[in-house]
Design brief:
alpha/beta; 310 residues; transferase; 5-stranded parallel beta sheet; 2 domains; Rossmann fold; globular; Aspartate carbamoyltransferase; Asp_carbamoyltransf_Asp/Orn-bd; pyrimidine biosynthesis; Asp_carbamoyltransf; 4-stranded parallel beta sheet
């Protein structure tokens, strides 16, 4: 495929190629005073965000600019969407205006796939930057890049993903990708935050975080997405923290080499203790840095190099 819409179906060879390219780009830029490559000169990349974002949007913009692409940011609130324009018409407008790649974030699951379908006859590629509770493939790729740096080969590693599985697109993308790379994934959440159909993800599901910690090579905390919650999924923030927050005592139960990840933004004191988030064990800021290089690699494979097979 010529788009990156999902990690479901992304095979190990294709994922590894993107991760290797990201590593090469990172080493190429290391120590440069001016971080600029001519790779995508003359290309136009548009970020089309219908939801708020800091990390994803900024890293895509930086990635495009470091590769000399012309990057245009479009916010739904300041575009013709505010006048009632449909996603389809917006997509066709951007393609007609010369966009080589549209990076889209949308609250509706499947929106990126629909957009790619509408642009089937155009030369415009689509990258899914998060669609509803469905997927967030570049987040999974940057998480894998961070884990490779910290742990080496991911095959045979056991990764725990903890928290709001019900509303998380990050969890689904990570399960697909980590399993493709040979890792075992354990999903940990309160029963009320486990989605139906999760058995089809191919990962083991449990509600007991403490029992899993000693056997994990990495633990990824998920953001509790209160903005998507309509009803009481747990009694209180304190109760959630008691059952599923990674505090200092829980962190001490992890193996010495284990890594702590969080896609951000973090709810400190609820999902993760501040002391754990700021510890040497945590790779949270490393994830952000790797996000730029991974997104550079994705843009390279879509716009300048080999297509991503997904």
């Amino acid at each position: 495929m010529r788009h990156l819409l999902s990690t479901d179906g992304l095979d190990a060879a294709s994922a590894t190629a993107v991760l290797d390219t990201a590593d090469t780009l990172k080493r190429t830029l290391l120590g440069r005073e001016v971080k600029k490559l001519p790779t995508l000169r003359g290309r136009t990349v548009v970020t089309l965000f219908y939801e708020n974002s800091t990390r994803t949007r900024v890293s895509f913009e930086v990635a495009g600019k470091w590769m000399s692409a012309d990057v245009i940011n479009v916010s739904a609130s300041s575009s013709s969407v505010g006048k009632g324009e449909s996603l389809r018409d917006t997509a066709l407008t951007l393609a007609a205006a010369g966009a080589d790649c549209v990076i889209v974030r949308h609250p509706a699951s499947g929106a990126a796939h629909r957009l790619a379908g509408w642009l089937a006859e155009a030369a415009t590629q689509v990258v899914n930057a998060g669609d509803g509770t469905h997927e967030h493939p570049t987040q999974a790729l940057l998480d894998a890049a961070t884990l490779r740096e910290r742990l080496g080969e991911l095959a045979g590693r056991r990764i725990g993903i903890v928290g709001d599985l019900l509303h998380s697109r990050v969890a689904r993308s990570n399960v697909h990708l980590l399993r493709a790379l040979g890792a075992e994934v354990v999903l940990v959440a309160p029963p009320t935050l486990v989605p139906t159909g999760i058995d089809g993800w191919g990962a083991r599901v449990t509600h007991d975080l403490d029992a899993e910690l000693p056997g994990l090579d990495a633990v990824m905390l998920l953001r509790v997405q209160a903005e998507r919650m309509h009803g009481g999924f747990f009694p209180s923030a304190r109760e959630y923290s008691i059952g599923y927050g990674l505090n200092e005592a829980r962190s001490a139960r992890l193996p010495e080499h284990a890594v702590v990840l969080h896609p951000g933004p973090m709810l400190r004191g609820m999902e993760i203790a501040g002391t754990v988030a700021d510890s040497d064990r945590a790779a949270i800021t490393q994830q952000v840095g790797n996000g730029v290089h991974v997104r550079m690699a994705v843009l390279y494979h879509l716009l300048a190099g080999e297509e991503i097979a997904a």
